[in-house]
Structure formats: C-alpha cells, structure tokens
Amino acid sequence: MKYLFIITIIFYLTSTTGYIAYLFFQKNFLHKTGYYLLFAGFLCHCATIAYGFIESGHIPVNNLHETLSITGWAIAGVFLVFHYKFKLKILGVYAAPLITFVMIAASSLSSEPTQSKNIFNSLWFVIHIISVFIGEASFALACGVGLLYLVQEKAIKTKNYGFFFQRLPSLELLDTTGYACIITGFTMLTIGLVTGFVYAKFIWGRIWVWDPKEVWSCISWLLYAALLHGRLAIGWRGRRAAIMSIIGFAVLLFTFFGVNFLLTGHHEQFTRW
Questions:
Q1: How would DSSP label each residue in 14-63?
Q2: Of 44, 101, 181, 217, which residue is most buried, by most CB within 10 angstroms?
C-alpha cells in the first residue's frame, strides 16, 4: 500500500503542475492534463483507502496520517463532482495544490495505528466520518471560490483587466458555485453531526459530552447556518458571502487542528502523530 500511496501523491503533484501551467498559458490541453492526472490520483487514492479498509476491517482513520489521507481523498472527490457540474476549470489551480499539500503532510507522519478497533465497529461511525469529511471538503472548495471571487471583484472595481481578470470566470458563476459548495457542505455536516450524536450515545452513553470538538463543530455549523440564512432571507451574496466562506473555513481548520492539539477530548485520539 505504501507504493500505491506514493503513486497517488505523484499523480496529484503532476496534476498541480498541469493546473499551474494552465493558469499561465491558458492552453486547454494543460487543463485536461491536470484534470485527468487528478482523476487518476483519485482512483489510486480510492484503492489505497479500500486496501486500508480491507486490511483493518474498518474505515482507516486510526491516526493523523490516515485522517489527512481521508481529507485529501474527500477534497479530490468533491472537486471532481463540482468540476463536472459547473465546469469551473480555474478551481483546479486551488484544489490540486491543496490536495497535494495535504497528502504530502500525511506521508510525513507515522502510519502506525493508535486506536482500538472496537470504537470503529459501527455503521453510524462510518456515516459520521464520510459525511463530515465530504462536508469539510465542500467548505474548503467554497473558501477557494471565495478567494477567486474577491480577486476577480477587485480586478473589476479597479479596472485592472490584467492577468487574473482574463483567467477568472464571471462573478455570477463564482457566486453560484460557492453557494452550491456551501449548501452541499452544510447538508453533509448536518448529517455528520446527527450521526455523530447517535454514535456518541452508543459509545459514551450520552449524545453530548461537551467535548471541545463537539462544541467547535456546532459553532462551525451555526456560522454556516447564519451564512445560508443571510443569503436566503437578507440577500447576502457576492463579496459578503465570499468573506464568510473564508472565515467559516478558518473556523473549520481550528476545529480540525487547533482543538485537537490545544485542547483535550474524545476526538484527540484520531489525530495523534
């Protein structure tokens, strides 16, 4: 599996090269190269995760190495879906390097399991993990779209029709794509939280134990709920939605890393080095 993991990283890395080349030269074959290399990396990644599942008998999230691997897999999968839906080619310039960075970080960590298998033997746990990671991957892409929106908006307002203006799509397409990412992320995070509560009831006897990860996950959920409410009820679009997407993802990053390394709780065992 080690060699398959390395091959997966190589595909993602070469995909990043293709997308960066596309950013500068705007040749369609460079975009296709980056896309198909990322797709190939995703297939290898699926095989890696499937092998880990078969070998261990449960979804591979034994440690930070495997958790980051699942993170990269989720971002790649969600990106491929949204690319097919919205044809936002330039988003690969953000997604491919992010996936590659996550996978390289995962490869530098120990792959030795640190968990008891008993806590993984639950369908609720599988649904919880997959839903949460797909949700967070969607929010990661929403953040990327938000950044692209702010760059394009600045180019338009300053009438600087240069490098980025010529390479980025319309503000409307960016706003629509970002909204779709947030809707998807919010739905999946909601499913993840609900199944997490059910799973906690089975494992710890209570659906809520004031675990720091639970608290900050709910804070993240409330933030995105406020963003969606603002969009539907007040008309938050464009710049405000883009900024909120970036802030929301920053809170998610703290929930994923900061809570585990700075605070103690039930979830810290899933992100040990």
A1: HHHHHHHHHHHH--HHHHHHHHHHHHHHHHHHHHHHHHHHHHHSS-S-SS
A2: 181
- The last residue of one of the domains, among 93, 115, 137, is 115
Question: Distances from the Cα of 216 to the Cαs of 39, 62, 191, 268, 272, in angstroms?
Answer: 33, 22, 16, 13, 19
Residue 60: the pLDDT is 84
Q: Which two tokens stand for residue 13?
A: 């890395």
Show Cβ contacts of residue 207 under 8 Å, excluding neighbours closer than 6 positions: 197, 198, 200, 201
Residue 105 and residue 215 share a domain? no
Q: Are residues 222 and 160 in the same domain?
A: yes
Q: What is the pLDDT of residues 124-140, one digit of tens each?
A: 888 999 999 999 999 99
Q: Are residues 32 and 62 in contact, defined by beta-carbon separation less than 8 angstroms?
A: no
Q: In the predicted model, is pLDDT for residue 262 greater than 90?
A: no
Per-residue pLDDT tens digits for 49-73: 999 888 877 888 888 889 999 999 9
pLDDT the model gives residue 115: 55
Whether pLDDT at 264 is above 80:
no
CB 148 within 8 A of CB 91: yes
How many structural domains does the chain have? 2
**Domain ends where: 115, 147, 182?**
115
Q: Which domain holds residue 200?
A: 122-273
Rounded-to-integer distance, Cα 80 and Cα 43, Å? 11
Residues 244 and 186 grouped into a single domain: yes
